[in-house]
Amino acid sequence: MNERFAAILDALEGWSRAAKLGAVLITMFLLGVVDYLTGSEISFAFFYLIPVSFVAWFIGHRWVVFFSISSSVVWWGANFLAGETFSHPLIPWWNTGTRLGFFIVVGLLLARLRQLLEKEREISRTDFLTGALNRRAFYDLSTRELQRARRYRHPFTLAYIDLDNFKQVNDRFGHREGDQLLKVVAQNLAASLRSTDVVARLGGDEFAVLLTETGVASAEATLPKLREGLLAEMARFGWPVTFSIGVLVCEAPPSSVEEMIRRADDLMYSVKAAGKNAIHYDRVSAQQEARPGISIAQPQGADR
């Protein structure tokens, strides 16, 4: 049941703003019609919270006041047309005002709750030091990409990146300098990639990059440039750090995210064993044929 409800919420999130606004307007109109047809003796005021709540949750707090006023006006109009009478002419204005205030308060509280939940969700998915995604978020997004690849047969690429000689930076310059280095790496990776790509810190000095819609040719064009940019940043700060990168190109979806990460990790360790500071590639094809590793740049560096 929870999964079905979550699927409905995800589907609504995918609607365009115009579609969401249209749904709200149609709902308000239908509520007004039903309110009018049932007469003034049956109150439908509570149900006008439906469009207001929808706006607060899916569109944002800036629209709450507008649709709260609109809902109040529709409610008032339906009851007026239904022939509702009052003992004093100010009573309908008082009723409309109290309902308006109620709609606004509930709507703004819901919008604020949504903001807090989104902020908490973002914090839970973000590495506190670098601002990149954390391991949990990376697994979630990789799972979605794997499912998408199975459905649409689109390729994607995983790059597993390890920082060579990072321990030397901590030992020589201190952990504060090491933290700054990790931040620079994360920022450089994010700035060098597309908005659809994913950058995550998996722990320690290891990063992962998920490149969507990326096959062998694109991976071989992108990853060397990415590594060159990182090396340039290290040279600019005077840090003796290089990068060992294992790249798994998934032309066909692997069996699981764990298998995908394990293979990319093994490729990275093969770079370490061969002397560091290079890139090794492999691929998952429909026949599960492995492509021989390709090293780019000359290996250098000390122990990990």
Automatic annotation (TrEMBL):
CDD domains in the record: GGDEF (cd01949)
- Which UniProt keywords are present, listed alphabetically? Membrane, Transmembrane, Transmembrane helix
Question: For the GGDEF domain, which residue ranges apply?
Answer: 154-284
What sort of enzyme, by top EC class, is this? transferase
Q: Which reaction does it catalyse?
A: 2 GTP = 3',3'-c-di-GMP + 2 diphosphate
Q: So where does this one cross the membrane?
A: 18-38, 45-78, 90-111
Concerning InterPro entries, the annotation shows: Diguanylate_Cyclase, GGDEF_dom, Nucleotide_cyclase, Rev_trsase/Diguanyl_cyclase
Q: Which E.C. number(s) belong to this protein?
A: 2.7.7.65
Is Transmembrane helix given among the entry's keywords?
A: yes
PANTHER family, alphabetically?
A: DIGUANYLATE CYCLASE DGCM-RELATED, REGULATORY COMPONENTS OF SENSORY TRANSDUCTION SYSTEM
* Record-given protein name: diguanylate cyclase
Q: What is the species listed in this Swiss-Prot or TrEMBL entry?
A: Desulfuromonas versatilis
